[in-house]
Amino acid sequence: MTPVRPYVPRPGERSAPPAQFPQSRKRQLKVWWREVDRVLLALVLALMTVGAISVAAASPASARRLSGTAHLPDLYFFWLHLRWQFLGLIVLLGTSLMPRELVRRGSILMSAAMIFAMLLVPMIGTEVNGARRWLDLGIRFQPSEFLKPAFAVACAWVLSWRARDAELPVIPLSAIFVGTVVVLLMIQPNLGDAILFVGCWFVLVVLAGLPMQRVGVLFGVGVGGLALAYTFYDNARHRIDSFLGGGTAFDQVDLASRTLMAGGWTGSGLWLGTRKMILPEAHTDYIFSVIGEEFGLLTCAVVVLIYLAIVVRVLVRLVDEDNLFILLAATGLTALFGGQAFVNILVNLQLFPSKGLTLPLVSYGGSSTIAQCFLVGLLLAITRRNPYLSREKFDWRGAIEISPLGRADGEVRR
Description:
three-stranded antiparallel β-sheet, 3% strand
């Protein structure tokens, strides 16, 4: 019998033999499955399942409303949504496999690319419903949606520099970053996303060690900014006036609230709702109201609980995190995800002015679905950890006591 000769790479060859690639990939998947937060992944998949069923319920209303010369089938948006969800799952799982260093570098590059794309929106962007927020480069997408997850990670990276040198002006630098984004969003106009970005930034700077005496000053600046927006920004003034005035029978928010309550506790049943047929954007902005009419308020409560479970699960995962960058990045991503869901639900309950924000992973969407899956993928990648390694708890007191003009009073590990 001829002895089996061991594999010897040729001169200049650095790769492993082809037979070893499947084993290497299999080993990587095993490591990923061991380190990934499987509870968080299960909650996200459950939410996407709820989204598919909800879009199926809302699709007839939107398809009939948007049918023009060409008749759209009742389940037109449902089948499209399944395709986008399939692509989103590929993005989600692929992103969750990324190492943390690649997550950081990729987010910085994507932030730069999306800000450049937002600079192009006022010039060559596509206008929809009076707002110019999309770029059509063969595939229409909204740059601000992809900027959200990249912004959270990039801003966390800048703020984490304080762990090395407390004298670095990281808060002013991050303020310039978020200010640039807000200006570009207000040009579109897109007040809802602008508020979301500012809210995420505020959470991060407070967690990074902004002195508590300055939190009130920052909050006052935010209120002043809203007052200026109301005074000089027609889009914001009209939405706020409509909200404070209580709405009319033909107001979108009022229609959404009536649709939400029409199903009672248990709902009218799938495809048996009637109020949804006159509801604008039933498959996107106001899909939570469709859930209320067809599946009932109890189902709405379950959806809210799933969102709360996702947020709480991430925060519990971060309790013993000893890396400031990971702590900030995961918190920022969670703030964006949970904040957008919170605002959308309040709008449907007529407790917040209409902002044009979709319900993450539930509403129909193309680029928004991909962007939200990318956000969750980053969150899964960042929170991956070896379950056999013990960690020291993060020094919250030491982080809060860091002064931007002096040295850290407590050591913060990176």
